[in-house]
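Course assignment 3, question 2. Fill in each field.
Student: A.L.
Task: Predict the tertiary structure for the chain below.
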Amino acid sequence: MSKTSINARLAMIQAFAEFMDSGSQSATVIFYEGVQPANTAVAPDSNNALVTLTFPEPCIKEATATYIEFHPTDAATVIKTGTATWARIYNGAGEAAADLTVGTDIALANTNLALGGTLAVTSIKLRP
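Answer field:
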């Protein structure tokens, strides 16, 4: 949908923001090593999870006509040594919201994560 109106984009962004904060838990982003699934309907291999970061509630910092920006995550401990290749964002109900390719959709200062190290994300902007 490359030619949606500003009002339509704002409505989609607002609906996404509400989706992210739904559920009884906080929204999260999990970084994985290995091959990214074809889409969010495919469950990731939990053995490939490197670190889970938690967003504050509400998780959306700003919604504009062109993007949604998330608040920074907490700093979390890496549970497995590996190279982060992709990440999945989950809403507060644990439902998959978006997959991000590391290096294309999301940048990390260092993609090689070490067991016991920490990681936090200071900014994520999704564009519809």
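Instructor remarks: Residues 6-20 form the longest helix (15 residues). The chain has one helix and eleven strands.
Grade: pending
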